[in-house]
Fold this sequence. Notes:
Order of helices and strands: EHEEEHEHEHEEEEHEH
Structural class: alpha/beta
Helix content: 10-25%
Strand content: 25-35%
Largest sheet: 9 strands, mixed
Radius of gyration: 19 Å
Amino acid sequence: MFLHILLTNDDGILAPGIRALWQELAQIARITVVAPDSEKSASSQAITVHHPIWVDKHPIDSQNISAWRVGGTPTDCVKVALESLLTHDLPDVIVSGINQGSNLGTDVLYSGTVSAAIEGALHGLPAIAMSLDSWQACDFSPAAKAARRIVETMVDKKLPPNTLLNVNVPALPENQLKDLMITKLGVRSYENTFERRLDPRGRTYYWMSGHVSETENDPDSDITAVKNGKISVTPIHFDLTNYGIMKLLEKWEL
């Protein structure tokens, strides 16, 4: 099996997570990296429409890897790659990550990592979002090996259209990781604080911070799986319609 894989992320092209990915996946694929030139975390599905998107070649010392750095969001990266840079050489798979920090439960609504994978799925390509459950410097190689395993299986078994896989890996040594678990999205909430500050000109601004608020989650949720040392694999699709209340709304006679 020798594939063409497009790699992107939201931590920037210099992030250790994406480097671990291309080092591992280059063993089974030709790699194209198209990633932001700087960190674009929590950018969700944002696209750049009010100023140019700068795209430059990025040097990587490998004959099997080509790379571009993009002055835009993760979604911009995938759009530019698929609709401009690679129109005559589309990838077989898109992998976004490996993100520094988890993307669990409702985090996926804000995540640039997940949104890049969503953009790939919107283009009809199989896509994976990979995240490591740690905000500290750590070893990305177990997560990269998990990505390779999932890519090889997904290509063989075929992922249904309009679907991506959101994968979260506990920050544990490889010999302590438990097996993969197929999960649903859990519920994750935050207690945010907005610190009021003044800039040197006396103008008011706010700095947002906060922490995760512990919430009860089902045993088959991604949050519970990662907490128990298991690699969580959650299939996601992007039809947000609440079909259950369509008939109720019809009764409203709007």
